[in-house]
Task: inverse folding
């Protein structure tokens, strides 16, 4: 009798699964995720600087750049924000030049039909304070509460609150507790806005698979994907030592096409790094399989997922290989129904270059992203 009842319950669950899935897909988080399909990160503007003079905030990336972003076919920006310069406003309650310029950008982006992800993108030192007791978390929750309340009345359908970029927390369970506290502070201040949550460490796909979703239904879950790292970060000086001396590493990878680069590596560690990349045989099919795990996680938990960063450092990468990788990543994400934001608007990761006051879109990168030359 008990076995029969269990079977009936199991059968009922199977019958209800499509209904539950359809209801989830119609939730506000899924609806709003549809406005985050083709985005671009706007870094080193309101974050990742040692200081933020108004002149640089007005000229590094400009309001005209936002119009260009829209005209190239992007539908949103992921706007990196350093929480440090918000502190004077938090304590005084009076607008500061940093916040005033930030408001201009948010409103201009919305006017250009771009959704905005308010991405808190702090220094490593700031993130470290979140994992040294409860004081840092409570302070950050207070800051998020003020910022969420500030933007909550503007446009809840098109302003998203991303809790924290790449938490760098080695304990995923502690991070889930910290994130829940921060999400609750945001939700109390902004009942209607959609929150963007992430996993521990550097928000990679393996990190996402360990994450348990928040109780809040109005949440999108983000991950970053820079795999294969030996290709995407070749020549990068700020990351692992094996990447620093790399140059000219091709994509797709085979043992044969990386072999000529082994002799250029000054260390055995670097040689092994490249050799393994060759034997891993990264190509479009492998990227698609890897990204597919993010979709499987989303289906398991009936929540929307979003790729907030993917990109290739273009300083020494072969241009044709870089374009091919960007294309394969974009196609894989779209095959798995995942919206994205490429890293980055400018800098060596960028979709545009700037020189002598002239901004030049990279048409090959735009094509790889499925977008187009700017439309007037």
Result:
């Amino acid at each position: 009798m008990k076995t029969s009842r269990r079977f009936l319950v199991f059968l009922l669950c199977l019958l209800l699964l499509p209904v539950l899935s359809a209801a989830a897909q119609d939730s506000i988080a899924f609806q709003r995720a549809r406005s985050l399909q083709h985005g671009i990160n706007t870094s080193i503007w309101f974050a990742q600087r040692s200081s933020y003079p108004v002149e640089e905030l007005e000229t590094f990336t400009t309001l005209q750049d936002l119009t260009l972003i829209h005209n190239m076919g992007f539908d949103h920006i992921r706007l990196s924000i350093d929480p440090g310069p918000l502190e004077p406003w938090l304590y005084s309650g009076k607008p500061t030049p940093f916040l005033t310029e930030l408001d201009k950008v948010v409103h201009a982006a919305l006017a250009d039909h771009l959704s905005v992800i308010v991405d808190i993108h702090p220094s490593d030192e700031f993130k470290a304070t979140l994992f040294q007791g409860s004081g840092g978390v409570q302070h950050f929750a207070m800051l998020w509460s003020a910022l969420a309340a500030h933007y909550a009345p503007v446009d809840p359908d098109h302003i998203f609150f991303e809790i924290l970029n790449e938490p760098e927390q080695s304990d995923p369970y502690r991070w889930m507790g910290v994130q829940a506290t921060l999400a609750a502070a945001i939700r109390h201040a902004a009942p209607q806005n959609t929150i963007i949550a992430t996993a521990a460490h550097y928000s990679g796909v393996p990190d996402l698979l360990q994450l348990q979703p928040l109780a809040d239904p109005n949440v999108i879950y983000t991950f970053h994907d820079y795999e294969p790292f030996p290709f995407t970060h070749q020549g990068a000086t700020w990351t692992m030592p094996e990447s620093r001396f790399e140059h000219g590493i091709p994509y797709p990878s085979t043992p044969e096409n990386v072999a000529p680069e082994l002799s250029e590596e000054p260390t055995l560690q670097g040689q092994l790094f490249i050799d393994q990349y060759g034997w891993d045989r990264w190509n479009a099919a492998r990227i698609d399989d890897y990204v597919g795990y993010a979709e499987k996680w989303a289906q398991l938990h009936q929540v929307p997922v979003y790729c907030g960063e993917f990109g290739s450092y273009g300083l020494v990468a072969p241009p044709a290989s870089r374009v091919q990788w960007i294309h394969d990543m974009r196609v894989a994400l779209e095959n798995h129904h995942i919206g994205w934001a490429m890293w980055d608007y400018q800098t060596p990761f960028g979709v545009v270059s700037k020189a002598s006051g002239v901004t030049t879109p990279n048409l090959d990168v735009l094509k790889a992203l499925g977008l187009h030359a700017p439309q007037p």
In short: The beta strands are 38-46, 76-81, 115-120, 159-162, 195-198, 219-224, 305-309, 339-342, 352-355, 358-361. The radius of gyration is 22 Å.
